[in-house]
């Protein structure tokens, strides 16, 4: 069996460069190469990378220009295996198919937090917020080998194109124009030691299991964009995709992470917004959609809503 790789046209999202049947042929080749086939093959529909379930394994295939993501998965999974309070996928194999890098990993049990979060009551969410804080702290306390070390150049590029990037994503012009003055007022963000970061602790990447009516964190997947960096860069995904401005959750998370209560002020909420705006994948328009129909007239007001560290009332 052979596979003809798609044209490497960067203007087209990677998953759209070939048909589902063509991607299936590639995944089957990888599965056969590593002794997994015959097995049930099923695509995951979300995300930009081609990811398929292959029985009890997961195969992730990406474009040559994104080889660094496969390298990150390989390096980081080995570095964190058995060292976190949750499971991470066990690395099975990695290689290239016609120049396209891939990794084969264990498929974790449980299911994404996104599938259960909406039906959890306030107490369960509060408990899981604390567990997420402890998980992030455990990750950040690990030794750095395996994680990309190029923080300085990476963050410099994030800040250099930040205004244009946010304008490209869209949003209210007064808030877009306020970004640079806001960041200058908050001040430098990249001070402090560099720690291992996942960078996308999202509700789709955190896995849970349910036992006796209690939901517990069980796994963390997708280390493709993991790197070394200051710990606060980590918090953006948790805030936007999991807590979504729900009162008290961010405070519970930060206290469980280990921040002193005296640190949790309105000024710190603005610092967290500054980190989020600087995150490579954050969009101001998307942050505003999280808290809709509320429409803050300033970035300070946005920080007070979505990044509030006040206790729940």
Label the CATH architecture of the largest domain.
Answer: Alpha-Beta Complex
Task: Give the CATH level 1 class of the largest domain.
Answer: Alpha Beta
The beta-strand count equals 10
Q: What order do the SSEs take from the amino end to the carboxyl end, as H and E?
A: HEEEHEEEHHHHEEEEHHHHH
CATH H-level superfamily of the largest domain: Aminoglycoside phosphotransferase (APH), C-terminal lobe
Strand content: 15-25%
Estimated helix fraction: 25-40%
Most strands sheet:
5 strands, antiparallel
Strand order of the largest sheet: 1-2-3-5-4
Q: Mind telling me the C-alpha Rg?
A: 20 Å
Regions with little confidence, pLDDT below 50 for 5+ residues: none
Gap between N and C termini = 62 Å
The helix count comes to 11
Tally of separate domains? 2
Question: Based on helices, strands and strand pairing, what is the structural class?
Answer: alpha+beta
Q: What's the overall average pLDDT, rounded?
A: 95
CATH topology of the largest domain: Aminoglycoside 3'-phosphotransferase, Chain: A, domain 2
What does the overall shape look like?
Answer: globular
């Amino acid at each position: 069996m052979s596979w003809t790789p798609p044209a490497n046209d960067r203007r087209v999202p990677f998953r759209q460069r070939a048909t589902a049947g063509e991607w299936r042929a590639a995944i089957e080749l990888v599965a056969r190469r590593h002794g997994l086939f015959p097995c049930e093959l099923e695509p995951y529909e979300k995300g930009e990378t081609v990811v398929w379930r292959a029985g009890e394994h997961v195969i992730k295939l990406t474009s040559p220009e994104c080889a660094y993501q496969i390298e990150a998965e390989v390096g980081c999974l080995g570095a964190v295996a058995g060292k976190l309070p949750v499971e991470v996928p066990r690395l099975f194999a990695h290689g290239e198919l016609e120049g396209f890098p891939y990794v084969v990993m264990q498929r974790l049990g449980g299911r994404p937090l996104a599938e259960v979060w909406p039906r959890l009551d306030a107490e369960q969410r509060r408990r899981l917020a604390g567990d997420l804080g402890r998980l992030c702290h455990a990750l950040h306390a690990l030794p750095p080998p395996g994680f990309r070390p190029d923080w300085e150049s990476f963050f410099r590029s994030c800040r250099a194109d930040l205004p244009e990037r946010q304008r490209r994503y869209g949003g209210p012009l007064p808030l877009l124009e306020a970004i640079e003055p806001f960041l200058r007022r908050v001040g430098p963000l990249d001070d402090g030691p560099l720690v291992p970061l996942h960078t996308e602790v999202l509700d789709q990447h955190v896995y849970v299991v349910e036992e006796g009516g209690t939901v517990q964190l069980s796994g963390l997947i997708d280390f493709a964009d993991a790197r070394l960096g200051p710990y606060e860069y980590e918090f953006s995904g948790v805030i936007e995709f999991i807590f979504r401005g729900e009162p008290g959750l961010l405070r519970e998370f930060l206290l469980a992470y280990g921040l002193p209560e005296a640190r949790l002020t309105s000024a710190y909420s603005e610092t967290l917004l500054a980190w989020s705006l600087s995150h490579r994948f954050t969009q101001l328009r998307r942050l505003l959609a999280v808290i809709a129909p509320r429409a803050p007239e300033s970035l300070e007001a946005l920080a007070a809503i979505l990044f509030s560290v006040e206790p729940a009332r």
